[in-house]
Amino acid sequence: MKNKTRRAVYPGTFDPVTNGHLDILKRASLLFDEIIVAVGNNTAKTTLFTIDERLDFLSKSIAAGKFHCRILVEKFDGLIVDFARENKIDTLIRGLRAVSDFEYELQMALMNRKQTSGIETVFLMPDEKYIYLSSSLAKTIGRFGGNLRDFLPPAVRRAFPSKFRTAKRA
Ligand code: ADP
Hints:
The chain is an alpha/beta fold. Helices cover 43% and strands 18% of the residues. Helix 1 links the parallel strand 1 and strand 2 (34-40).
């Protein structure tokens, strides 16, 4: 019997993608045959980077890295369960850092399961060096010109100075 292709969606805001996100993606790429990184457009969060910038950073970072399965980057509007259903995927990937992530992630996973039966969320833990890294912390450090070499992929680091000049002027 032919093995079924294992496909998953890794949803998020990715404002911007960090090495923590890429670490989760690398781990997931050992477990699945195809992953769609789904970048939320019109989420409740106000983003620093536009949807096109966030998609571009992800595509460049994935192209520059080593992953073990096929990875696609797409944007989504609306509910992630609808995006997953449209793509005939029933597995979501999320990263879990500290206990502080747990409550929100549990709520999301159970709500997503309630919206669409058969949807499961798989949680992966990053390398401990990324446990305290978040996109928002990276933006705070970046705004003040701090060192982010170990935390952000080159495509993102290159965009930081001009983005913050623009953000300050606005
Ligand atoms: P969202 O707005 O959906 O939380 P994020 O881009 O902040 O989008 O995060 C997407 C996923 O990646 C979440 O599951 C989050 O917990 C995970 N994540 C974010 N940063 C890290 C990190 N440093 N290590 C591991 N997982 C992370």
